[in-house]
């Protein structure tokens, strides 16, 4: 993990950047386009969106403009989107993939995820992802918000094992059992809401650690993610924050500080519980 282009190798051999830009709750418009462009120009290579965010068109525009202005080739970017719950099902999931590509204005996605483990629906959706993958239309496939029992259930019938599981992950929700299970099964864990939607940015214990390294609390948390082997995609639309978030590659947290951050766990979620959601 030397810089923003540093990658990990997924279980199918595809390289995925350790660090990326998330765009959850960023509405269509110039702010979104500019955020994507700023990130790519600053060295980010991974952009994460989803159908339900309603902003794939703006993300695509930002990607195209950044490519034109920087000369970066499409194959050097890593673009993720996700199929929403209402579109889970074999035919509907394939149609949802086509829709995401159309809105993004891309020929393929690097990673396509099932957004939530809707009971009775995610296996058929996974079969659709396997088809897209086998046809070479997507580089990697995975899931989001899957607990251990969801992963076990999926893998009972799956021909292809998920390459990624993107979940809520931060110092108040360390997900150690899930992290260990994913590592054991060679499924790459990825963090959404790594900064707990800003709720940790005034934490005194984290501030003490940040002061020690001359870093911000956000940088310390994001570095903790990376040192735990977890891909991270913090969201921001502000240019200085996009740059600051990524300034995490030239320092290393001590084992003692890693453990101290770990000890902040309260199994506290800011997002929905994957075992109890109704959407």
From TrEMBL:
- Source organism, top-level taxon: Bacteria
Site for Lowers pKa of active site Tyr, residues: 82
Q: Which residues does the Swiss-Prot or TrEMBL record annotate as the active site?
A: 53 (proton donor)
Entries under SUPFAM superfamilies matching the protein: NAD(P)-linked oxidoreductase
Q: CDD domains attached here?
A: AKR_AKR5G1-3
All residue ranges annotated as the NADP-dependent oxidoreductase domain in the record: 30-265
Protein's name in the database:
Aldo/keto reductase
Q: What is the lineage of its organism?
A: Bacteria, Bacillati, Bacillota, Bacilli, Bacillales
